[in-house]
Write a structure and sequence with these properties.
The complex is a heterodimer of chains A (349) and B (391). Helix content of chain A is 72%, strand content 0%. Chain A is mostly helical. The longest helix of chain A is centred in the last third of the chain and has 35 residues. A three-stranded antiparallel β-sheet of chain B has the order 1-2-7. A two-stranded antiparallel ribbon of chain B has the order 3-4. Classes of the chains: A mainly alpha (349), B mainly alpha (391). At the A-B interface, helix 2, helix 8, helix 9, helix 13 and helix 14 of A face helix 2, helix 4, helix 5, helix 10 and helix 11 of B.
Chain lengths: 349, 391
Amino acid sequence: MTGALVARLRPLWATPLAAAINLVALALLVWVVPKALDWAIFSAVWSAEDMNGCPASGGACWAFAIAKARLILFGRYVFDEQWRAALGVVILCALVALSLNPRFWRGWLAAAWAGGLAIYAVVMWGGVFGLRYIDSTYWGGLPLTVLLTIFGTFFGILFAIPLALARASGLPVFRFVATVYIELVRGVPLISVLFMASVLIPVILPEGFAPSGLARVLIGLSVFIAAYMAEVLRGGLQAIPAGQIEASRSLGISYFAMMFRVVLPQVFEIVLPPTVSLIIAVLKGTSLVVIVAMLDLLGAAKAALADPKWIGFHVEAYVFAALIYAIMCGSIAWYGRRVEARLSAARRK
Amino acid sequence: MIDTKTDGRVARPAPASPSLSRLLARARRPDILAQAILILVLVIGGWIAASEISANLARLSVKSGYGFLFEEAQFELGESLIPFRAGDSYFRAFAAGLMNTLKVAGIGIVLSTVVGLVIALGQLSPSFVVARACRLYVDVIRNVPLLLQLIFWHTVITSSLPTVRNALSPVDGVFLTNRGLYLPAPIWDPSHMTVLGIAVAALAGAAGLYLLTRRFALSLFVFAAAIALGFVAVGAPLELDTPRLAGFNFKGGWEISPEFGAMLLGLTLYVGAFNAEIIRAGILGVDKGQREAGGALGLKPWQVMRKIILPQALRIILPSITNSYLNLTKESSLAVAIGYPEIVRVSNIAVFETGQAIECISIVMIIYLCLSLITSLILNWLNARAKLVER
């Protein structure tokens, strides 16, 4: 027992340098960690009426985050109906969790998406079954972040499939058009694409059509994600052995049947890890909609700071929002790693 | 050409060298049709969109074209590398914005590489505590949106740091305030030009020495010694201009605005975490045998790292880290959220003043495209140079 412990601890003083670095790092930790813990937990104020309840010299004022939690989480969604926004988040997350697992890539998954999205639309908009109608301009906070991430990725992937096929095709016109699109979009920052979408879409449509701010942002986001996803898919297409395509050709299978029944199912399995990374990047990227005046999780955290009853708790507000982002990104990464491990185990069998 | 087989059947002619007519003959008719349709759709779609846009813009009575670039801009930029004030042309405003973008991106690239290297080596260090702390840093920073971090640092600087009157002064002459960071700066003297000339000459000399002897430390020493000697020989004065309180603000010295400070801090910490992962993967990608062989030759661990592992890891790191530099440059556009006057912010102000949104945003896009193009050209050149020379 002690032997095992000593063996585990031995690397700590393997060389004099390692021992010295360890001691210094440990001293730093001993100095920093208690201070951080004291701020975050021991001296923190958990309940207070307003800013007067939180002494300026004390620890974190979580009372502020608790008082503003509903605003940060749901933005301006009608207060009494916020359970609907929460339910919407649950529906979308469940659909995505199912779709990330290749074992569920069957016909019923498409049906589940269709049904799930119908329920989602009813829950979020309302206006039927006695639910109050809530316009999309009032959607905000975490539900908006989740919505933008999932629908942005969804439409991005839909658009990326023809792009990737065009880029990999032997037809020069298709290849050229796809390459120009992908390189153009990947060369510019997301924020400029979002700006362009919000000014170009209203003037490109005939008079009378005015898509909502949400639709414009979603289009800009999808256009941007598609270019990146097309590159991810291209990597997967290159990994498919040429023999499979030749075999399909010699069997006389048509191009589209070959792509959608033989090649793409394998490609999506191969590109699962980079797709998970892309989803995490998209989730973080949705925070940019703050710049085009939408109230997502980050925007709602900013808005919470505007209350004159609570002034100066920006650290708490941003730490709270950061924590939610970190938990979401962390759990997507964890889920992705788990599916990947299962897949590689299944491949080895 | 035609040979007959034993069973009397006529075999196909052997394939001739591919010529254009053959390629055209081989191309299937549906393929040509599909491409023609694509071209047609794009042309018609583009034409409809363009006419729709011009009709709508005319209805909204918005001017179009890039002529506004030479009109007078009616705004000030907080800071710029080239002189700019209200009344100068929009063209100059965009140029000043581009300089600010390049400034924050350039310094950010250098600092984020340093942070990345330190964190990567920390993660791989034999010290358990350091490795875990570095891992935690990477995991936390990479999972929080950059924009949130930028807004956080900006708010912390502008709201949590003391006012100018109660400035925090950790070292004499350095002042931390909610209006920015003030540092002492050397006072410019004409004789510094001579020293600069000597420095350039010393750099060339040191580079030559390095190419001849391949001894980096010696070359560096010669370089530094030449500059120091130059200072003494020319008798150039080296005085520092210390910032001092004058009225409501500090005067003199070097001023780093809260916006630039928050941008640089946020970008460095965020991209540094990504660079750390790239560098770590590069170091781990070098064959284990190389490290063992280095050890067997009697090299010390840090010598193995510097002389054997890192040069080989560079080959793996280079493509990914160039991509990361490009991302940093593009992500510097988030500065618009905290008011650092880089190109996107300049464009936003110009949109507000002129109403010509499409032109302004397209200028930003073209500039970023050019930056991307230049970076990938440099990357290709570096890749070709760093490529393993094989027999």
